[in-house]
């Protein structure tokens, strides 16, 4: 392995496991494990040279020849990159040596057809991308950069990560692929640095092997890069700088590490390692050359960049690899001893190829209690610890566990993080943000910008009747029909229930007008009753006048059903009362018009109209016409009666209670029938307006019907263009106006003669009687 301080821990974990096994009287009794250590440099030539030197023995490179006669190795542990494992695996496969790798899991090495003798100790990182995305979502980081080694494993991880990011609405700010070819790297090295440094993304994911060119690149980034949050894995060894300061680029880095328990006794073993105990240790020999490094120096006293006392993932895999070989040897030796004949005293000979059949299916629990399975298809469930790197002065660096991720746990229990334990980079006074655009607060929604990533957007206010009650909402939410948005449009408020009430100014005016006009009509009726024997009252069928005045009184009181809180009874009575009363009034006007015509025709020689007039036939028009309207009303009430409804759209802040017509068609049939009666009365009165009679009221009937028709013709467009309680107000106003038109046009002139010109009323009556006697004499 290429030598870093972390790699020295791999060696110590290897030695610790060997010594632990040799002290165990039950695992390999009467057998002591030994080992050889070689430094496989990261170049194909030097790696192959180290491999051949180990195979040949005696420190010489002699292909196809071994100088070692006794104590030959039966297995090899290799790390930390896939390149070293693949290069050595090609040669070791020729000799059928089992090769246990302690680097991160690589899909290429799991190809049994290409590398049948390689066993990977690290579990698959299938959920690593998901865990990183969960971390981004927790902190709201939606604009993230990626720095990835340009190798197959890293490219596969890139696909997994970008897929998860896309599914969760996180955008890739940039992707920097760091070449694995030295010439390509050095030609563009500083360009990578500047692009990442100048990016608006404050969060960058690093993925790749630390002893690749990516590691060489980041050794320079330690100087250039500040104000970034790095997310990486435990395989990425960034703790190599002696510049211990809060200003260090990697202070605050978040690392995903495979979760595992602490190996008992390992820390105590490290505390006991010193030059006096291991005088041939090359690392301690170098330390011994320093004046400040006494013979009994403890590794615990060294700064973090020199040595880390916490067992790394790689050391954990080395420890398990050694124990896997020991467990395999234990079972193999047991099988060989059973195959030997009794009394045979020679020790069984173990060949490397014999380990494969057992190694493929070996399972055991290590001293920490973790289950170890070399079969990659039966790897235990992945779990990740999230570590935060603290880089303090004087070498006081720490990796602090701040979170946990269990992919197969329930959604609300799979991810946890303790923000209060995280120490961010010095430039961040609070939890860092990494966004392409500022958050759209409540009341706004995201509007995508053409040609830019989905995370780059503009904030647009929510339209009317819609709200957004959270940040960065893509769509605003419509309020319910009985709610409306507040001024900030960040939550819905209940609408105030309202209707055309008596307390309402409009309702009060209409109610007062209705009562006043009904009282006025009652006064007119009283005048007519009092002067019932005067010629002007008698001459125009006073019975019909009484009926008309009574119907007008009720017509003026009818609007009171439209004012106030609606209920089922008033909704039904509104239309029925309105339709029937107005039918009575209009049909009475029609009867009066017919009476005028018959009265004139009966005085003409040869006409036999007198018996029709004397029989009271015109009066039968009223019940006949009213019966037709009542029939329409009954049909309406059976098919689709009016009901209480709420108008949620007319007023944005009000919920208006109204009476729904039930059937709009029947409502217009009601109006249409009234209109036909009115037009018939108007036409007949218009034709009879010039008939020579002293008390001919045809002209007044004509004007009354003209006013009546004008009011209701104007009513239709106004009614259809208004909403809510103003529709009710328009209908009430039309009822009052048309009724008032009938009252004024028909009865105002008569009241004038009765009250102000009473002598003329008597004179005109005497003349009328004289003319009648003359006609009878003739």
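-> sequence recovered:
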């Amino acid at each position: 392995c290429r030598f870093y301080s972390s790699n020295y821990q791999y060696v110590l974990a290897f030695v610790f496991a060997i010594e632990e096994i040799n002290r165990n009287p039950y695992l390999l009794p009467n057998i002591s494990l030994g080992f050889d250590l070689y430094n496989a440099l990261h170049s194909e030539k030097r790696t192959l040279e180290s491999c051949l030197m180990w195979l040949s023995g005696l420190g010489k490179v002699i292909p196809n020849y071994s100088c070692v006669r006794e104590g030959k190795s039966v297995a090899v542990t290799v790390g930390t990159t896939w390149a070293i494992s693949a290069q050595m695996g090609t040669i070791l496969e020729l000799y059928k040596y089992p090769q246990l790798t302690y680097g991160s899991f690589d899909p290429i090495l799991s190809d049994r057809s290409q590398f049948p003798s390689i066993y990977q100790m690290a579990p698959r990182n299938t959920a690593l991308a998901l865990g990183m995305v969960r971390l981004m979502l927790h902190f709201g980081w939606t604009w993230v950069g990626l720095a990835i080694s340009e190798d197959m494993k890293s490219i596969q991880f890139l696909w997994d990560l970008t897929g998860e990011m896309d599914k969760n609405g996180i955008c890739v700010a940039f992707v920097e692929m760091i070449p694995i070819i030295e010439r390509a790297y050095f030609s563009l090295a500083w360009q990578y640095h500047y692009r990442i440094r100048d990016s608006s993304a404050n969060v960058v994911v690093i993925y790749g092997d630390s002893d690749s060119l990516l590691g060489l690149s980041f050794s320079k980034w330690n100087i250039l890069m500040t104000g970034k949050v790095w997310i990486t894995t435990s395989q990425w060894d960034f703790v190599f700088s002696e510049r211990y300061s809060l200003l260090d680029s990697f202070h605050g880095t978040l690392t995903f590490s495979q979760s595992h328990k602490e190996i008992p006794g390992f820390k105590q073993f490290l505390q006991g390692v010193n030059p006096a105990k291991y005088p041939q240790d090359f690392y301690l020999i170098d330390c011994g050359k320093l004046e400040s490094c006494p013979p009994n120096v403890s590794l615990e006293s060294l700064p973090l960049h020199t040595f880390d006392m916490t067992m790394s993932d790689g050391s954990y895999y080395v420890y398990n690899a050694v124990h896997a070989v020991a467990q395999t040897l234990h079972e193999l030796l047991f099988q060989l001893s059973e195959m030997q004949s009794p009394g045979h005293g020679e020790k069984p000979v173990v060949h490397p190829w014999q380990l494969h059949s057992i190694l493929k299916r070996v399972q055991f629990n290590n001293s920490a209690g973790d289950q170890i399975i070399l079969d990659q298809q039966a790897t235990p469930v992945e779990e990740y610890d999230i570590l935060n790197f603290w880089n303090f002065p004087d070498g006081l660096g720490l990796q602090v566990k701040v979170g946990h991720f269990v992919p197969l746990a329930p959604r609300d229990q799979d991810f946890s993080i303790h923000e209060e334990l995280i120490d961010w980079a010095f430039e961040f006074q609070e939890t860092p943000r990494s966004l392409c655009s500022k958050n759209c607060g409540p009341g706004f929604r995201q509007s995508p910008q053409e040609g830019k990533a989905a995370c780059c957007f503009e904030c647009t206010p929510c339209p009317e009747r819609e709200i957004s009650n959270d940040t960065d909402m893509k769509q605003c939410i419509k309020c319910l029909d009985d709610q409306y948005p507040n001024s900030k449009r960040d939550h819905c408020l209940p609408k105030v229930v309202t209707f055309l009430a008596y307390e309402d100014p409009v309702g009060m005016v209409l109610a007062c007008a209705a009562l006043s006009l009904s009282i006025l009509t009652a006064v007119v009726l009283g005048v007519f009753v009092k002067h019932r024997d005067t010629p002007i009252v008698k001459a125009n069928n006073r019975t019909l006048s009484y009926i008309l005045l009574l119907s007008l009184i009720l017509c003026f009181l009818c609007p009171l059903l439209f004012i106030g809180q609606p209920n089922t009874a008033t909704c039904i009575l509104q239309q029925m009362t309105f339709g029937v009363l107005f039918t009575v009034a209009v049909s009475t006007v029609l009867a009066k018009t017919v009476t005028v015509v018959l009265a004139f025709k009966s005085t003409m020689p040869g006409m036999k109209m007198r018996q029709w007039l004397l029989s009271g036939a015109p009066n039968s028009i009223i019940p006949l016409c009213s019966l037709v309207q009542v029939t329409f009303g009954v049909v309406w009430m059976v098919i689709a009666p009016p009901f209480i409804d709420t108008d949620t759209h007319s007023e944005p802040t009000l919920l208006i209670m109204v009476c729904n017509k039930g059937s709009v068609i029947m409502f217009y049939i009601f109006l249409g029938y009234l209109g036909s009666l009115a037009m018939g009365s108007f036409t007949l009165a218009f034709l009879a307006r010039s008939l020579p009679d002293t008390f001919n009221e045809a002209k007044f009937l004509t004007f009354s019907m003209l006013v009546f028709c004008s009011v209701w013709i104007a009513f239709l467009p106004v009614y259809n263009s208004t909403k809510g309680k103003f529709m009710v107000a328009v209908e009430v106003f039309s009822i009052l106006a048309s009724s008032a038109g009938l009252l004024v046009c028909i009865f105002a002139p008569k009241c004038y003669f009765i009250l102000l010109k009473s002598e003329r009323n008597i004179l005109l009556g005497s003349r009328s009687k004289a003319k009648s006697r003359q006609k009878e004499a003739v």
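The longest helix spans residues 568-601.
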